[in-house]
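Supplementary notes for students who missed Thursday's class. We covered one full example, reproduced here. Read the sequence, then the structure, then the short commentary at the end.
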Amino acid sequence: RLSLPPLRERLGDLPELMRGFVRKKLASGADRALLVDYMEATGLRGAPHAELAFGKPDEGTPGVRFVLSRQSYSELRAHPWPGNVREVELLLANAVVFALADAVEAAGQGRVAGGAETIPIPAKLIRELLGGARGSESPDATRAGGFEIRPRAQLRDVARDLERQLFVRLYRETKGDFDAMAARLLEDPDEGAARKVRLRFNQLGLRVRDLDE
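Structure (token representation):
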């Protein structure tokens, strides 16, 4: 039986693993549909395709390029990766969906900064995701109303944690029915309400596949 050493002992594999996970994440399902929405909103042509670049976008690469700063990449290399390759995949999936969902929202409001082919992954987002990976079970966490409240540096981060837990609960209670979720979250939901809820669901880094497992 072939046994690979832990990822922290083969960090040279990290860039190609990360590129592969970004392609995989946006190759099908709701995430690919979100990529299509972005390309349509920004007027990009061609088949939906995504790549990950480090430091600066690779010129000539087709499709949408997600750009990770060198500083963020250094922080990722320094992470111990106790969850090994699976942890890398989950972190990249969340980072890409957060960045893409924010880009879709910005495009819808006519706020596309720079070239539409490039979507930066914020360094702050990577730090937040790494912080969550280091300890999702905080010893300082308290519970209220069935939700776990974890101390964060900013109140908006606490609010995001709670919103994420609420969406997970509603998804499970409605058996994945986004129309039903919209009916419980919004007053007089219109025809596009379920789509808005699904977009926010993606922005929170949630994946249907993970919750259905």
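Commentary. The chain has nine helices and five strands. Residues 21 and 123 are 19 Å apart (CA to CA). If anything here is unclear, bring it to office hours.
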